Amino acid sequence: MRHTALKDEFGEQIAKLQPAIENWSPQQVLTWAFDSFGGDVAISSAFGASGMALIDMAARLRGADFRLFTIDTAFLFPETYHLMQRIEQKYGIAIERVYAAQSPPEQEREYGGALWSRDPDLCCKLRKVEPLRRKLSELAAWITSIRRDQTENRSSARKIEWDLKFGLVKVNPIACWSDLDVNGYIKDHDVPVNPLLDQGYLSIGCMPCTFPVEDGADARSGRWSGTDKTECGLHL
Ligand code: SF4
C-alpha cells in the first residue's frame, strides 16, 4: 500500500524528469535523492571501488548525514570487514548491517553445507535478496553504485528509476560511469578501497564465490566463476 502511494507520488515525477536526469552529474542525482527522501533513502553498498566512490561523494555533500547499509552475508572477506571499520572512522557514520534470518550454522543444518556450491541462487536468496527486501521495506528509495557497463542486466539502468522488483525508487548516480571514471575519482579524492582490488579481485562479494581475475578480464568474471550466474538477484 505504502509503495503504491510512493509510486503515485514519484513515478510521474521521475518520468517527467527522465530526459534531464540523464545529463545530471552523480552529485546532482545524489542531491535530488537526499532532498526528496531525507531519512527514508539509504545507500546500499558492498564496498567495491564504485561503491567507495559513491560513499565518498555522499560524504562530501552531506558530511555524516546520510544512511549507508550493507547486506552482511557472514561470508565476506576479512579485508571487507576491515574496510567497513575504516569507512566508519573516516566518514563518522555507522554502517547499518543487514543479516540473513539464519546464521551460517542454522542454514547448514537446514540446507546442508556449502549451499553456495550446490545452489548459489538459493544461497543468494537466503543471504542477500530476502535481507535486502526486508531492509528496503523500511525505505522510500535506495541508492546503488551499479553501472551500465558492468553486466547485460545493468545495461538499461536509469540514473533514477522505479524499482519494480522491490517497489520503491532506485537511484543509480554513476550508472553512466566507466572503470576509468571510478578509478579517476578514487585517485583524485584519496578514497580508501578494499586491498583485495590490488590482488586481482576486481568485483568483491562473498569469499566462497569470489575469485581474482586475469589482467584485462571482465571485472565480474571472478564472481561465481565457472557458472553462468552473474548477479546475486539484487539488481535483476
Ligand atoms: Fe551464498 Fe555465494 Fe551468494 Fe554469498 S555470493 S550469498 S556465499 S551464493
Helix content: 40-55%
Oligomeric state of this protein: single chain
CATH fold name:
Rossmann fold
Overall number of domains: 1
Write down the secondary-structure element order: HHEHEHEHHHEEEH
Provide the β-strand percentage band.
5-15%
Q: Tell me which ligands are bound.
A: iron/sulfur cluster
What structural class do you assign from the helix and strand content?
A: alpha/beta
* Arithmetic mean pLDDT: 93
Q: Distance N terminus to C terminus?
A: 23 Å
Summarize the main sheet.
Answer: 6 strands, mixed
Shape verdict:
globular
* Count of distinct strands: 6
Identify the CATH class. Alpha Beta
CATH superfamily: HUPs
SSE layout:
Elements: H1 2-21, H2 26-37, E1 41-44, H3 49-62, E2 67-72, H4 78-91, E3 96-99, H5 104-111, H6 115-118, H7 120-136, E4 141-143, E5 160-163, E6 168-171, H8 179-189
Parallel strand pairs: 1-2, 1-4, 2-3, 4-6
Antiparallel strand pairs: 5-6
Helix pairs in contact: 2-3, 3-8
The structure holds iron/sulfur cluster (SF4).
